[in-house]
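Lab notes, practical 5.
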Amino acid sequence: MKRRVFHSRFFRKRRMVLLLLSGVSVLIAGCSKPAAPAAAPSKSAAAGPATNVGTAKTESMVSSNELATHKAVFERRPGGRDPFFPTSTRLPKVAADGPSTNQPPRLPLSSYIKLTGIRPSKTRPLAMINQTLFETGERGSVTVFVPNAAGAADAQKVLIRCLEIRDDCVLITVEGEPGVKQLREPAGP
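Output from the prediction step:
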């Protein structure tokens, strides 16, 4: 008889557990049903303020069967950190040199070199390049003013070599740039 008592108790407990589990599953299934779409507002409600306060309340109330869910949104900002992995290095870092890192493309230094004058001569021709005199074959430095990111001009020294002085132009080479450059005098007034 003890054996039967054990079996009957065991089956009773098992039945209770199964009933509880089925009740919980029904409860979960009832909560996860999508809510019915809200009825479209009538023309009279769209035209002016609602006259029936009771209807306005029922439209704004949330049904107890609806479950408010929020989707997590992670912004990938430069300099931000991952809240779950704060020591992670997969997010981009912000440069510490200032707010604006966008610099305009730099022109070659030869574009800032100007021929300001030529003194033609059969024996010793001279060319004035950026207010510095050069003879044929002479090598020297000239000062050029290059605009920086802030809009101000920075003075830089550029090493050039005067290859040939003609009546209307001068041929030079610029250190650090390939090829021969031809400088012409600007057209005068």
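Observations recorded by the TA: The CA atoms of residues 40 and 46 lie 10 Å apart. Confidence is low (pLDDT under 50) at residues 44-48, 50-60.
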